[in-house]
Design brief:
By secondary structure, this protein is mostly beta strands. About 0% of the residues lie in helices and about 50% in strands. The protein has strands at about 5-10, 15-25, 30-35, 45-50. β3 and β4 form a beta hairpin.
């Protein structure tokens, strides 16, 4: 991976849901999965994705990189 490909993962705290997304600026699209446990206790594995556009860029000094 490089500066044009990113993996984002997060977990919801109020809901039993976790998410993994891969953003590819070369192909200008994202793809990912939502994983959840429904009210009936069954596990759900839902695909997701979209075409994407860059709307802005941010540049940081070397001594002030974001976490």
């Amino acid at each position: 991976m490089d500066d044009n490909q990113y993996i984002f993962c997060w977990r919801e705290f109020g809901l039993p849901v976790s998410t993994v997304f891969f953003y590819d600026w070369y192909q200008m699209r994202s793809t990912g999965k939502f994983f959840a446990i429904g009210e009936d206790g069954k596990f759900a594995n839902t695909p997701a994705g979209a075409l994407i556009n860059k709307l802005s860029l941010a540049f940081y000094p070397l001594n002030a990189q974001p976490l």
